[in-house]
Specification:
Elements: H1 4-16, E1 25-27, E2 47-49, E3 52-63, E4 73-81, E5 91-96, H2 104-115, H3 118-123, E6 124-129, E7 141-143, H4 144-147, H5 158-179, H6 188-201, E8 207-212, H7 214-226, E9 230-236, H8 245-269, H9 280-292, E10 297-298, E11 301-305, H10 308-319, H11 324-335, H12 342-345, H13 357-360, E12 363-365, H14 368-375, H15 383-396, H16 406-411, E13 435-442, H17 448-457, E14 462-470, H18 479-491
Parallel strand pairs: 1-3, 5-6, 5-8, 8-9, 9-13, 13-14
Antiparallel strand pairs: 2-3, 3-4, 4-6, 7-12, 10-11
Helix pairs in contact: 1-2, 6-7, 8-15, 9-10, 9-11
Length: 507
């Protein structure tokens, strides 16, 4: 079982493999404070990527603060896979796999060939970039030791809430110190302006864009700022950046709970499910109750007790696939642990060896909160407000106990300043061409209503194609979803209004 942040760490590590290589730097001409300047950009000096010479890598030097174009700069890492059929080339396809914190460079180099169809690879230069603060683009760094000291994100009273806020403030200052000025400009709107600078550096009047999950927010805001510079834009697992704190948390919790119920229904009808023939909901609730009593140990580390929140988070991550067989086997194994094993699992954990002074100075890339807390004005002021939000979560997701991921995200912003660089607002797209949106009906992380709301806000600009199955990824889910995106990107053909894609396989 791989929790999300561990999975994201692996993605980022793939991008960081480039760190020791010599990659050319090209300085981009400065734009005006809003990034709408028309100054000609220099071309990127592409070189073979160190870990895969079939892809090309480079960097683009950009201002940290667009309001101060002559101030500090950073180098944005970029990777490209050129169209395999140059005679039929349509243009560039910029890609972002989400996060916030996933590496677009790693995606272009390591995953694009398996993710996109051969037709897309023939017709487009696929270009990935690491957003500012991510991967090789001046990553946000924080003290490893401090990161390991995070208190519970489920405070039970005002004193525990105050400790969480105090920790978040200390971590924020630590990350700012290790990262420098870019930390205060890690928001998505700044990334959008970087992306338009990349468009200019590529010598393209218009771009094509494919964004997934948090990458859809980049696309949505690019369409607001630079709609006339888009040829096509396909967005999957969409973000609704107009939501307030309660709506955001409750809808996220409802998405997770819906995926749990989809799992239960699948298990009831699937003989290969390790829990088939049992009352899956009762097994699950009993398991979490045992975890609350400290009776469940980590099957990968017998001395470690699993909390109920860890179990729900691991389950939540399997819903992304969905990997239901894996989850059923995992739950069945935990449920089978004997009650008399409690004594052994309750033995005190062995203390960690004291860190050396050198180890204490080590840092870790941790961009998530720098981005999220500058994109969302969600700040619970005190424990009473926090508890009300938590109770609303629990009512929406009693079996998943709220939103496993978004709860952590919101908790990470407690204690941060009220001002944010890129606060929520309704989308206002006026100049963009038709944009294609795809979204799973049973997405575990991004509720389907998010896509419906975005479509409602931009009805004259967007076309929404629901995938009626489950899972977070959408493009490669079926021939229907893949063909819809491919036909649109290549031929500008959009699905008929009101159409949808049927579930594929176990989705």
């Amino acid at each position: 079982m791989q929790p999300l942040f561990r999975a994201l760490t692996g993605v980022l590590a793939a991008g960081l493999l480039l760190a020791g290589a010599s990659i050319p730097i090209v300085e981009a001409a400065a734009a005006d404070p809003r990034g709408h300047g028309s100054t000609k950009q220099q071309a990127i000096d592409w070189k073979p990527c160190p870990q895969d010479a079939t892809a090309q890598c480079g960097t683009l030097r950009l201002p940290v603060d667009r309001a101060r174009p002559s101030g500090e700069t950073f180098d944005m890492a970029v990777a490209r896979r050129k169209a395999t059929d140059p005679d039929r080339r349509v243009g560039v396809l910029l890609v972002n796999p989400g996060g916030p914190g996933a590496s677009g460079v790693a995606f272009a180099v390591d995953q694009a060939k398996s993710h996109f169809s051969a037709d897309i690879q023939e017709r487009f230069d696929i270009v990935g970039f690491d957003p500012r603060g991510v991967g090789r683009s001046h990553p946000v760094k924080c003290s490893t030791e401090l990161l390991g000291q995070q208190p519970s994100v489920h405070p039970r009273n005002q004193a525990e809430f105050d400790r969480l806020a105090e920790f978040n403030r200390a971590l924020r200052e630590d990350c700012r110190r290790h990262t420098g000025p870019l930390f205060d400009h890690a928001d998505t709107l700044s990334v959008v302006r970087d992306m338009d600078a990349l468009r200019g550096a590529l010598g393209e009047e218009k771009i094509n864009y494919f964004g997934h999950s948090y990458g859809t927010l980049i696309g949505e805001q690019y369409a607001e700022e630079y709609g006339d510079r888009i040829r096509t834009m396909a967005l999957t697992a969409n973000i609704d950046h107009s939501l307030g704190a309660r709506e955001f948390l409750v809808s996220s919790a409802a998405a997770a709970e819906d995926s749990f119920h989809q799992f239960v229904k699948w298990c009831d009808r699937t003989s290969s499910c390790a829990l088939h023939g049992r009352d899956v909901t009762a097994v699950w609730d009993r398991l979490l109750a045992r975890a609350d009593r400290g009776e469940i140990r980590d099957p990968e580390s017998a001395d470690r007790i699993l909390t109920a929140h860890e179990i729900t988070f691991d389950a939540f991550m399997t819903f992304y696939g969905p990997d239901r067989d894996e989850l059923a086997t995992y739950v069945a194994g935990l449920d089978a642990q004997e009650p008399n094993e409690r004594q052994r699992s309750e033995q005190p954990r062995q203390g960690q060896p004291a860190l050396s002074r050198e180890a204490e100075q080590q840092t870790k890339a941790e961009p998530f909160y720098a981005v999220f807390c500058q994109d969302w004005r969600i700040r619970a002021k005190d424990y009473r407000e926090y508890a009300r939000l938590t109770q609303a979560e629990l009512r929406a997701a009693p079996h998943m106990r709220g939103s496993p991921r978004v709860h952590r995200a919101v908790a990470g912003c407690v204690g941060w300043p009220d001002e944010v660089n890129n606060p929520q607002h309704r989308l206002r797209i006026t100049e963009a061409p038709k944009i294609l949106m795809l979204h799973s009906r049973h997405d575990p992380a991004n509720h389907f209503t998010w896509a419906a709301n975005v479509h409602r806000q931009t009805r004259g600009t967007t076309v929404l194609l629901p995938y009626e199955g489950a899972g977070h990824s959408v493009y490669g889910r079926s021939d229907c979803t893949r063909d819809a995106v491919d036909d649109y990107l290549m031929e500008l053909r959009l699905p008929m209004a009101g159409s949808s894609c049927a579930p594929a396989g176990t989705g």
